[in-house]
Amino acid sequence: MSADRRKPVLVIGLGRFGGAVSRTLERMGHEVLAVDCDAELVQEFAPDLTKVVEADATDEAVLERLGVADFGSAVVAIGTDIEASVLSVLALADLGLTNIWAKATNDKHARILERTGATHVVFPEQRMGERTAHLINERLLDF
Ligand code: ATP
């Protein structure tokens, strides 16, 4: 197991995407620290994750207090609020994280994330749409 695999993973945003990423990583044996500004979501996820914190992830001082510089990887799972998404990536990059995954909602959002410090940009809805089309295609070929 590499050193990075043993480090906890930071997940910012516990919407449908961030929630699924967090719970799946925990099931796989990783420690997950999740941050969301929504108190109800924080309560909902608290039993399932190593640590869940209610905070504004665009605030670099808050992230610094959480010790995120020591984390192996971070996932910024904010999509709709592009400003919050970009500012969170910027804060993490400024704190020295070098493995930052971020969710993008469109190409321009993706380009901004890359320039701001994201090392991996993902498009979950687009990828899932492509995957579903492949599954439908396979089923149709079976008949
Ligand atoms: P989904 O994954 O459900 O499709 P989405 O792409 O619509 O989500 P948002 O709803 O914008 O993304 O954000 C996802 C989560 O991030 C929400 O639970 C929201 O409360 C949280 N969030 C948004 N801004 C911040 C912030 N500044 N700090 C912490 N959490 C935030």
Strand content: 15-25%
How many helical stretches? 7
Round the Cα radius of gyration to an integer and report it: 16 Å
Percent range of helical residues:
40-55%
Q: Count the beta strands.
A: 6
Please characterize this protein's 3D structure.
The chain has helices at residues 3-6, 16-27, 39-45, 60-65, 82-94, 107-116, 124-142, and strands at residues 9-12, 32-36, 51-54, 73-76, 100-103, 120-122. The chain is an alpha/beta fold. The N and C termini lie far apart (44 Å). Bound molecules: adenosine-5'-triphosphate (ATP). The site of adenosine-5'-triphosphate has 21 residues, from helix 2 and strand 2.
In short:
With 143 residues, the protein is of the alpha/beta class. The chain contains seven helices and six strands, in the order αβαβαβαβαβαβα.
Using brief descriptors, characterize the structure shown:
globular; alpha/beta; six-stranded parallel sheet; single chain; 143 residues; binds adenosine-5'-triphosphate
